[in-house]
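Entry 14. Structure prediction run on the chain below.
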Amino acid sequence: MKDRLLSILKFILALLLLPVVIGITVSFLEDLRTMSEPVSSAFGWGVVVYLILHMLLYEPAQVFDAAKNMAEKTIGFLSPWVKVAGFCVPFFTIVSFAAYYFVYLIWKDALAFPYFAFLASFTFTMHMVFAANTLKKKKPGLLKENYLFSIFSIYIVNILIIAWAFHFLSGDFSFSRFISRCGDIAGAIYTASFKQLFVVEGR
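Output returned:
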């Protein structure tokens, strides 16, 4: 009985996270479009190229495992979080942004940013695909509540990391505007859903 109630609670939490997932995705894409065309295009192509590679040519499982292990070792001092660090922290994506920062400090060449945006997008997509595949193999629960709650949470954390990196490295991307728009979209979905479920029309 306890396990069933916990499963229902996780499923409800996953449903509550869905508007945030939608809001954070729409908001991120809107802000991405405000960046220079080479950067936004490079980020989009990073997603496409990885998916083509994964589906048609090669699944870089060893690369993901290496990134997962390094993420776990990096924050090993936070013992309660070690087990989830490999899934929540897109290690090579962060490395891509850090590499650009050091390149910019040395050469002061912002024209290199699209290449690193491509790498960040490529590694982010790899991270999400393998995280999803790994979570699917674990016990999903009757309503797949464990999988849904976990993958939604991982996605939100990853997009927040990328959004903050874009804000820090580029003046075109506003993290505060991104968060505000995300809140507006998610809030609108929550409000519409509440009215649909609990407000009787005409009363």
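Helices lie at 2-34, 37-57, 61-74, 82-88, 91-107, 113-137, 145-169, 175-198.
Filed with the rest of this week's runs.
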